[in-house]
Write a structure and sequence with these properties.
With 194 residues, the protein is of the alpha/beta class. It contains seven helices and five strands; from the N terminus they run βααβαβααβαβα. The protein has a single domain (3-193), classed as Phosphoglycerate mutase-like (Rossmann fold), CATH 3.40.50.
Length: 194
């Protein structure tokens, strides 16, 4: 059985500030609380033979992996398809501003200067599909962001909404998928977006 442990990055400075970030070139680090969360994630996965740590281009995902797997010889690989949503001109704005914009637009609408939720969802489906087909990896720790994990959980369960019933994803909490469930998630995301 091939396993994929999807986890959101540990608490970051922007989580504390309540601001959004969709630009991977900006350095955003985990907080002291986040460091403890990442180490706890390491304890949770300590007895699994992890072959690969996949992370996004965002520094907080790589930092979470480095802390969680500090004493282990695990290769790291960057996966831009799982990057957080490019929010364009909303970069650095408050979560309240981000949510207000979303309420007035559909999933198909692009954030000003960025991408749409549907475009991001299709990226996530592509990443999940590729992972599910990767027979060389037996167990991977996949560190990304709240939205791709939410979409994967809901889609794998066959939900008609990518945003529910599960919505809030805690920091550094692993969600376990086997390859078939991840493939189902990819297919359902594609179905819901088309």
């Amino acid at each position: 059985m091939r396993l994929y442990l999807l986890a959101r990055h540990a608490e970051s400075t922007l989580n504390v500030e309540g601001r959004v970030n969709g630009d991977p070139s900006l350095e955003v680090h985990v907080t002291e609380v986040g460091e403890a969360e990442a180490r706890t994630l390491g304890v949770q996965v300590a007895h699994l033979p992890i072959d690969l740590c996949l992370h996004t281009r965002f520094s907080r995902t790589r930092q979470t992996g480095a802390l969680a797997l500090a004493d282990r010889e695990v290769p790291f690989r960057e996966e831009p398809l799982l990057d957080d949503i490019d929010v364009g001109e909303l970069e650095g704005k408050s979560i309240a501003d981000y949510r207000a914009w979303k309420r007035q637009h559909s999933r198909h609408d692009r954030f000003p200067g960025g991408e749409s939720l549907d475009e991001a969802a299709l990226r996530y489906a592509e990443a999940f599909g590729r992972l599910a087909e990767d027979s060389a990896t037996r167990t991977a720790l996949v560190l990304c962001h709240e939205i791709p994990i939410r979409y994967a959980i809901n889609a794998a369960a066959g939900s008609s909404s990518l945003d529910g019933p599960v919505h809030d994803i805690g920091n550094a909490a692993p969600f376990i998928f086997e390859a078939d469930a991840l493939a189902r998630a990819a297919e359902q995301i594609r179905r819901l977006v088309s």
